[in-house]
Design a protein that fits this description.
By secondary structure, the chain is mainly alpha-helical. It has helices at residues 22-26, 37-41, 47-54, 57-64, 70-84; strands spanning 10-13, 18-21. It is built from five helices and two strands; from the N terminus they run E-E-H-H-H-H-H. The protein has a two-stranded antiparallel ribbon with strand order 1-2. The longest helix has 15 residues, at 70-84. It is elongated and about 50 Å long. The mean pLDDT is 92.
């Protein structure tokens, strides 16, 4: 199946608070899909099978990894800024 076969479908995005197309969801993070694709799209098609068909196990693991907490992101940004400006 073509990776873009479901691009015209739409569903409600709980993160954004409005409807989005699958095309948006499948390319949200550096050409990788949103980690919520299996949860948001399972009623319209087999989203888990779609992931395994188009992405490697390593990519799927990266896709499904939860984001780090906001405070960890902020501390990481501070540390990187400090390292760049000694």
């Amino acid at each position: 199946m073509d990776i873009a076969a479901h691009d015209q479908r739409e569903t409600y995005c709980r993160k954004l608070g409005h409807h989005v197309s699958f095309k948006y969801c499948r390319s949200i993070d550096a050409a990788l899909p949103c980690r919520s694709v299996p949860d948001c799209w399972y009623t319209q098609f087999d989203a888990a099978a779609w992931l395994t068909e188009h992405f490697s196990p390593e990519q799927i693991a990266k896709i499904l990894t939860p984001p780090q907490p906001k405070i960890a992101s902020i501390l990481d940004l501070i540390a990187r800024a400090r390292d760049q400006n000694p």
